[in-house]
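Q: What would this chain look like folded?
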Amino acid sequence: MSRPTIGFAGLTHLGIVSGAAAAAREFPVVAFDVDPARVADLAAGKLPIVEPGLPELVQQHRERLSFTSAPADLRACAVVYVAPDVPVDESGASDLEPIRELIQRVAGHLAPDATLVILSQVPPGFTRALGRGPARTFYQVETLVFGRAVERALEPERFIVGCADPSAALPGPLAGYLEAFGCPILRMRYESAELAKISINTCLVASITAANTLAELCEQIGADWSEIVPALRLDRRIGSHAYLTPGLGIGGGNLERDLATICRLADQHGTDAGVVRAWIANSAHRRDWALAQIHERVVARVKEPVLAVLGLAYKENTASTRNSPALALLAALGPFAVRAWDPVVSAAPEFHPRLTGAASALDACVGADALIVMTPWPEFRELRPDAVASRLRGRVVIDPNGILDGPAFRAAGLEYARLGQPLRGATG
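A: My prediction, written as structure tokens:
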């Protein structure tokens, strides 16, 4: 029995990864975008995004992937996902006009019995307000995580599907497609599914904020957060997969968008979002941790410091710099000379007026008074303490995420600092 053709409209990060995963599950895929140049690049194997494993996945299943800028080609599809990344402004509000326009464009070319699924993240109320035929319109929660998108697309934990009538069976082609991934399928009303993604991210933010708050306390009282984490993971109420890693606030844009949505909805409906606003404030507070360390350990001691910054992306394994802690740090380093390197993001002049792009991680260290590791790229783990120490002019290493071997760097005579570890004393 032949498998139905699955369509994906909007070939940004979400659409490309989701389409490749569908092809990997042996479904023929029609991948549509309004930009002919982007379609041509994808057809030629040129990906506009950085995502581990994605080039290999696309190449391996290329025979089932058809890229097109002609919306009429979607008429061959039994199921069409509308999956562009939704842009977010500086306040965390989503710009929904592009996805509305894309839905309108796609809907005019669907076969009469085709199913339309909104995969992009939208606020509660969006899908129902479209006013489309409820039996053929669904919302599905996306689970994209930059740097782990391929893994999560191929092996999803569950599918969350918003329906006009959760008690009704899903259309055959959609049900067959989802069942091919072998995970639970949770049907619920549109608004519940739209809020489910926000709920997931809200719980994640709660964990991040708890870890950041307690890690900061550890730094001041002589405790070590990394010693406490194993005890928490063995508590069944918290669990082995809990997010307990402290960080420099909340980055990337999606979490901020969801917090802003909660605050907006709470204000509209008279519910309390005080705890959410406290999380936002805590994120802003912790983002300045590296800057405070630089001022205490370097600026207070060196008249004209030179700083080496490793990592510009907001997290490892992505080229995205939206809400990047590294760029926020650079913006606050005003008069100081900075040498920076990132495996995929080039050091651009607009990031900092005295920024120099280095040729490698070790090259960034040459002549610097401090090394600051702002993005935990895996390759930074390979940096040898002696190699770093021989190139630095100073002795300070600031490693918020603990990507380096702290004891080894201290043994090399370097002053090492990371989130959640005692900060008192010259050797941190």
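The chain has a mean pLDDT of 94.
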